[in-house]
Design brief:
Blueprint (H helix, E strand, L loop, with lengths): L2 H36 L3 H29 L1 H20 L4 H15 L3 H11 L3 H32 L9 H15 L13 H24 L1 H24 L13 H31 L4 H7 L1 H21 L2 H18 L8 H27 L7 H25 L3 H21 L3 H14 L11
Helix pairs in contact: 1-2, 1-5, 1-6, 1-7, 1-10, 1-11, 2-3, 2-4, 2-5, 2-8, 2-15, 3-4, 3-5, 3-7, 5-15, 6-11, 6-12, 6-14, 8-9, 8-15, 10-14, 10-15, 10-16, 12-14, 13-14, 13-16, 14-15
Amino acid sequence: MTRRRRRLVLLICCMSLLIVSLDNTIVNVALPSLGHDLRAPISGLQWTVDAYTLTLASLLMLAGSTADRIGRRRTFQTGLVVFTAGSLLCSLAPSLGWLVAARIVQAVGGSMLNPVAMSIITNTFTDRRERAQAIGVWGGVTGISMALGPVVGGLLTDTVNWRAIFWINVPIGLLALFLTWRFVPESKAPSARRLDPVGQVLVIVLLGTLTYGIIEGPAAGPGVSAACFVVAAAALAALVVWELRRPEPLIDMRFFRSAPFSGAAVMAVSGFAGLGAFLFLNTLYLQSHRGLSALAAGLCTLPVAAITTIVGPLSGRLVGTRGPRVPSVVAGVCLAVAGALLSQVTLTTPLPLLLGIYVIFGVGFGMLNPPITNTAVSGMPLAQAGVAAAVASTSRQVGQSLGVAIAGSMASSAAAYRVNALYGLIVLAVALLTTGRWARATAERTAARLTEGPQVTLSQG
């Protein structure tokens, strides 16, 4: 591919990230209006967000391996069609139940976009430094979506209604569909991977019961929560045992022998749990408690979005030149500091001070995304790039789902933001542990094992 063609492919892949990420930020700013019209309780608002992120998390790995098997462009195009159709259904939803169902349809399409797009980027940009820079641009698109989502969503909510927030996905999705057909080459893994329906079901049971226990537990009682957590733990144990026995698993457990890869997954869960909690709580705080309009609340999030857009590509360049440690450490420190400061915010906190805290949060989140993605796919065989990228994307969505669930179930936003500070400390500790010489050695050994072929089953070993 020529340099110009590679950049065009990157642009097309970034368009898919834009609409999937945009949907999260747009929906968050419209939650108070949506909840009023559909008479939704706090738990209903949580499900409006988590039905989308949970479905994404449950299907990303299946989508990544399917794309490697049947073709990345074909899977990507299918995802664009389903996501666009789901957006239309969301705009027509007559009740909360129908909206949640349409959000699931959206997420089914979205699951075929981001991990597959990252796999396309990985196979397009084969030079290590060029790939890191491309991933930095990819991470910067998250900042753009954070900038556009609250402002555009607030404007549409105030001037039309909350249903209009889903319309913006339609023209972007159709344009991306045409450009993909025209310019993105087809690619697939050299050998087809088998489907793993048992593993897929176990993933859905694990994530679904865990999130249900957190969201509905406070209202349903401790017995329901305990039962959900027991089922989730059993599903996790069964998933690990099952995947270790399969020669071609849904989740290749050998990936986690790499300390950098495992660290990237933990940092993704922690960092995006902080993001999910921040977006959810911030919307309710600014609109329901401080009385701002949806547009004004969206404008208040611009510092987060702007700094994320600037810092994302910078983080990508740092990863390419100096490795993932520096940006990961900066991310952990900033997220921890922002969480601690937000826990002290009150209704009388001056707006400039609040926006300054948002800037700190934006620096942390902007620094976090590129090292997570780069660490997840670097060193992995190209044939398994889709699955590796899907694990990283799944970790992000799991984190965001848990962040919303935990934040909404806590007694106060101050307590929830103290948990956000803990997320930042986890990112910091894991970054220091998994970016040194020992960690790189484990990554090299893991890459060597992955090139040897399918994993050996327990019965053979």
